[in-house]
Amino acid sequence: MMLEHPREGESIQIHSYKHNGSIHRIWKETIVLKGSPNYIIAANDRTIVMEADGRTWITREPAICFFYAKHWFNIIGMFREDGIYYYCNLSSPFVRDKEALKYIDYDLDVKVFPNMTYVLLDEEEYERHRKEMNYPDVIDRILKSNVEKLISWIHQRKGPFAPDFIDMWYEKFLSYRK
User: Fold this and answer.
1) Record-annotated residues binding Mg(2+) 1 (predicted)?
2) pLDDT digits (tens, 9 = 90+) for 73-86
3) 7 given a catalytic annotation
4) Which CATH number goes with the domain that contains 43?
5) Contact, 133 vs 125, CB < 8 A?
6) Would the annotation count 109 as a binding residue?
């Protein structure tokens, strides 16, 4: 059952799955900054993350997260001492139920540095999982075209990559933490 989009200030969990339906990772607590049918902007800092094997760790820095209902990626902007780093997961569009915001992680990632240079990561893992979990050809095409879309956004400084965009949402996040 789909729910209305989450309310600003609401705390939600994020569940990442693999294509075969197995859990990949769970973020225990993330604050919604803006919710709409097409996207959710959320933030967390020092939140507990549980891996598929049960191991847990705590995030080290504030992160602003962008999830889309129509794009096959999500974008996480992380605040570090030397600037904002982005970690972009190639993934299914998100869905949300009573339990959490959920998406399928498709292995490919784009890491973007503060100077807007980037690197595509985990291509070998993607190819291995594509064979093991039988990703359909249509998914392969969608993901590869979304890598191109993401790179285009980086070059154009579009969406979360726009100057000051992450800072604006971070300010909003801080207002919820007071």
Assistant:
1) 89, 105, 109
2) 999 999 999 999 99
3) no
4) 2.40.380.10
5) no
6) yes
Phi, psi of 79 (to 5 degrees): -85, 120
Query: Does a structural domain hold residue 2?
Result: no
Q: What are phi and psi of 145, to 5 degrees?
A: -70, -30
Question: Is residue 122 annotated as involved in ligand binding?
Answer: yes
Of 7, 25, 46, 60, which one is the catalytic site residue?
Answer: 25
124 is in an annotated binding site: no
Report pLDDT digits (tens) over 25-74.
999 999 999 999 899 999 999 999 999 999 999 999 999 999 999 999 99
Residue 172: per-residue pLDDT: 96
B/e letters for 114-127, b = 16+ CB within 10 Å, e = fewer, are: eeeebeeebeeebe
Q: How many CB atoms lie within 10 A of CB 87?
A: 16
Inside any domain, residue 101: yes
Domain count, the chain: 1
Domain residues for 75?
A: 11-168
Query: Higher pLDDT residue, 4 or 95?
Result: 95
pLDDT score at 1? 46
85 occurs within a structural domain: yes
Quick check: is 105 in a domain? yes
8 is in an annotated binding site: no
What are the tens digits of pLDDT across the range 92-111?
Answer: 999 999 899 999 999 999 99
